[in-house]
Design goal:
Elements (H helix, E strand, L loop, with lengths): L1 E2 L15 H7 L5 H14 L7 H8 L3 H13 L3 E4 L2 E4 L2 H14 L3 H9 L1 H14 L7 H13 L3 H15 L3 H13 L5 H24 L8 H13 L4 H9 L9 H13 L5 H31 L9 H7 L2
Parallel strand pairs: 1-3
Antiparallel strand pairs: 2-3
Length: 324
């Protein structure tokens, strides 16, 4: 494998990595992959011919890790594989192309609208200062502009989106877009929508914790258990008071589970019961009905026994006489 770059004297040389690498690639790459890239970047200056096996020994990494690293940088277009080895691409040139290409699809009218939109520019400036310490890479401007159009968020929501993600998981583009998709599915457009959404989420989390506590769980609910709770709260729109009635019914069960709870609560929903009073009345009537059925079955059993035709033995003496 041959890696090439301009020759320089080893003693007086230094390895200068473009800032684009730190801004665009560092945060999303595996640590070992970064290690591999930096080393081959260093070797490329001296036109070194090195095998992946040697690279594995030199960096104290498995051969498989070296292969995965080279494949990763290929998918990122950072390196290009050739018959004789790899060529390290110019990261600054790649960045220039990524910035220039989207502009080709934008009309002059769109550019004017973006330029005139002072509130949007102010929002982007706030995001830059809030999450990137004033050093937001240029590609983010295109991404944010695209998300404004795609999700129809207002400026306050876009700032809140970055702030929310930054506080939880940093500024990974994939993570921010995933959260944005989730907000869009919940019809969030303005800050009032977002505020209502957070209130619903807070209520949902409170109900989850309460259910877990009432069932005696010393753990968080699993993904599947959470899905059940989401159905009861979001789809059925049942309050904790209603769910608690179902929880009380589990006291007679040896191993209460969410499948049982779901059958009970889904039955109430299917019967169009919406309040605690309606459910309590239904359960009361069901109890009376079941009691009446049992009483009826009991009486029917007695009547059957009473009406059973029995022989009359008035003359016992003749009975015994006939037996001899």
């Amino acid at each position: 494998m041959k890696i090439t770059q301009k020759d320089q004297s080893f003693l007086f040389s230094s390895t200068s990595v473009p800032d684009v690498f730190f801004a665009e690639y560092l945060s999303s790459a595996n640590g070992n992959f970064i290690k591999v890239y930096l080393y081959i970047f260093y070797l490329s200056k001296y036109n070194k011919d090195i095998k992946l096996n040697d690279l594995s020994k030199k960096l104290n990494l498995s051969f498989k890790t070296i292969q995965e690293a080279m494949q990763y940088w290929e998918t990122q277009h950072v390196v290009t594989k050739t018959p004789s080895g790899y060529i390290l691409n110019d990261l600054q040139e790649l960045e220039l192309h990524s910035l220039y290409s989207p502009k080709l699809s934008s009309s002059p009218e769109d550019a004017k609208k973006t330029e005139k939109n002072k509130s949007r520019a102010k929002a982007i400036e706030n995001i830059n200062n809030l999450c990137f310490q004033g050093m937001m890479r240029p590609t983010w401007y295109n991404d944010i502009d695209l998300w404004f159009k795609k999700y129809s968020f207002d400026e306050e929501v876009m700032i809140a989106l970055f702030n929310y993600c930054f506080q939880r998981n940093g500024t990974s583009k994939n993570y921010i877009q995933t959260v944005a998709e989730g907000w869009a599915k919940n019809n969030i457009k303005n800050f009032t929508d977002l505020d209502n959404y957070f209130l619903k989420q807070e209520n949902f989390n409170t109900i989850k914790k309460s259910i877990s506590k009432k069932l005696g769980f010393h753990r968080e609910l699993t993904q599947y258990e959470t899905a059940y709770v989401e159905k009861w709260v979001v789809d059925y729109r049942f309050s904790l008071d209603i769910i608690e009635i179902a929880l009380k019914k589990t006291t007679s069960k040896t191993n209460p589970n969410f499948e049982y709870l779901n059958k009970v609560i889904s039955d109430w929903h299917d019967r169009n019961l919406k309040t605690t009073d309606e459910i309590e009345n239904y359960l009361k009537n069901s109890k009376i009905k079941n009691k009446n059925i049992k009483e009826l079955e009991k009486n029917s059993s007695k009547l059957s026994y009473k009406n059973y035709e029995q022989r009359n033995y008035d003359n016992l003496n003749s009975l015994y006489t006939n037996n001899f």
